[in-house]
Amino acid sequence: xxxxxxxxxxxxxxxxxxxxxxxxxxxxxxxxxxxxxxxxxxxxxxxxxxxxxxxxxxxxxxxxxxxxxxxxxxxxxxxxxxxxxxxxxxxxxxxxxxxxxxxxxxxxxxxxxxxxxxxxxxxxxxxxxxxxxxxxxxxxxxxxxxxxxxxxxxxxxxxxxxxxxxxxxxxxxxxxxxxxxxxxxxxxxxxxxxxxxxxxxxxxxxxxxxxxxxxxxxxxxxxxxxxxxxxxxxxxxxxxxxxxxxxxxxxxxxxxxxxxxxxxxxxxxxxxxxxxxxxxxxxxxxxxxxxxxxx
Length: 295
Fold this sequence. Notes:
The protein contains 1 helix and 20 strands. By secondary structure, it is mainly β. 49% of the residues are buried.
């Protein structure tokens, strides 16, 4: 999005590489259940007008913004700006997206987009209230031209759509991560986010805690577990997610060989696992997410 397409610019101190923010009327989809944002079974949305959540970026250089918004909650998010400039193709095609659009509670839509280096390489954005203020943030996956993927958090900052924090990039081009979801996994009142790091290669679950201190926000890795996955190359969705069957949140993934569906728990110090039964395709994950017994 060029600056000519916007009503004006405001200073942000954000890095370059992201362009654009504007407000317009319109409403789109919904978010995720309260307390848990899960990867679920949503298929990959292609081209424009995607429902869901987005990927973001900070600490790169040069963010153009226009049309400051009043304090409103994000009610939905989607990816826009299809591009083939990062032809990884891990999600079934070589189309990724340059832009993130969020719908606010008053019906306005705010947008931000990457001009170079980074794309959103994801199925759809996920909404979750990570800081406990009652308003959701947006959880996305974004990939750098040479550094691969990272998990990023976007939200409303001083009335503008901006990236809040992010994990480090994996460090190598065409290396990806698949989100599992977000929840207070250990019951301490602080939210954690989980993803499978390189689900086709490293097959390692990583849990990050969303920590806030004043205006400072960071993601801190608190646990990891090797030997699990939630995606195979070419699939347009991400398997499993986070469920709560009455005894606290459980992360639903597969073992590294796709033989079993696993339920993982994080107690604040370590990750434990339980086999739920044989993996027999996406129906096995759907049954597990509904707290049903696998056959």
